[in-house]
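Continuing the series of single-chain predictions for the mutant panel. This is the parent chain; the variants come on the following pages.
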Amino acid sequence: MKKRSIILLFACCMAALGTRAQTEYDKGFEISKNLEIFAQIYRNIHLNYVDDVDPGKTMKKAIDAMLSSLDPYTVYYPESDIEDVKMQMLGEYGGIGSLIHQNGKNIYIAEPYEGMPADLAGLKAGDRIVAVNGESTEGKSNADVSSAMRGQAGTELIIKVERNGKILEKKITRKEIKLKAVPYYGFLRDGIGYIVLSEFTQGSAQQVRDAFKALKQENPNMKGIILDLRGNGGGLLNEAVDIVNVFVKRGELIVETKGKVASKNLKSHTRLAPEDTEIPVAVMIDGYSASASEITSGSLQDLDRAIIVGNRSFGKGLVQNVLPMNYNTQMKVTVSKYFIPSGRCIQAIDYAHRDANGKATKVPDSLKTAFSTRNGRTVYDGFGIEPDVEVDMGYYSNLEVALMSKFYVFDYATQYYYAHPTIPAPKDFQITDEIYNDFVKFLSDKDLSYSTITERVLKDLRETAKEEHYLDSIASTIDLLEQRFKAEKEGDLQKHREGVSLLLKREILNRYYYEKGRIEGTLPHDPQISKAIDLLLNQNEYKKILTKK
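Parent structure:
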């Protein structure tokens, strides 16, 4: 009987292996068949299509279409885009170190980075780029001009700009641009330290560690620290682990990745001595905090080592590897999902399933699972990191959106900069009545038309009433509402003065004190930061948040 059972078990195993082998064979056959069909399709296009076809562009479109059916993060990079890959992964690129933007048909210097070639050569925000290496920028896009300015470190380029009606020519030597992952750190009120982390590139963790040590040295009695990850789209996973390690002891499991290839699955533990495992920590997140930002904030939440303040994060729990390919091309491919200490994956969108329109679906509430933090607090998977304390930042008014999108704030800051050689320090500079009234005067001959929700509702009401044959009887009422609203709208510059003033302050500070000054000068106006400071200073409330509910 025993022998018979063994034979039966052996037969079942062989059958399973046979089924698996057949499945793999079928997949291999399908791959070979479809590759052959694809090659034949392109060959027929090449031989028979009425016009010449660019092989590189055609294949790139085909590859992009195929990869777009998977997820937004699996992408192909031709040789021409390798510099962009380098910038994404290392925060480095060969160039002059400046942001540019397009306003209509013109390209402008938007922000030269402090101490970089563009800045050292004297380029200023507001300079209109006329030509790069003798080639006119007329008709060129923002991407075209950006590409022309990038190149191998050590090479020269000549940029011709127009400033206040004068044409200036600047010879600039490109260099390897390394962006700062920590653009600002300092003290806020009542001994609370503050560190901004803008990206998770190589060396980011060391910059955070160095910033924290500098703050601790400046004030050994620092009462708390805020790590600001708002707007940080992520980057290198190992940097996230090392940043958590600043506040967590060596040997803690921070993230585990799981994918198809078992040999690539890994568990990442903290590996260094921490800087401080006791100081109260608040991490700021928002809807643009993703990937490595979510590993950092989520693991600190799971370990009950920090309170999370702000708004729900993006929800990207996917890990990508960059794979080198032939002809100096590369492919970034999603290889696994990551899981933070509680065991949850925060991936919010299910790219494996699509709705009737072909769009990926969100993870439904019915599939969300409850997990526990170290102290027993309940947290959930499937929709990003939910803050412990939600603070609404509010929204830009339609007026503010119009002022930014039409570059009126930017243009006024340029005018202001050349009329005022100096301004007070960032913490002291304010938008006075004189400055604000001057800005209103600046706008007097500008097209400040913008549409509000109320106007759109009134327009829809007029159209609906016309379709239903009520317009004749209510047209006068709609006219009166539109006239009264127009009068109200004319007062928007005063109604939204606080928000507009903050836009002006941010842009003007940027001209004199670069990114660091802009951050420092606008922090006092940030309600999320203010709330985080209050929580860190109130130890009873801080500990209550981190205790099991």
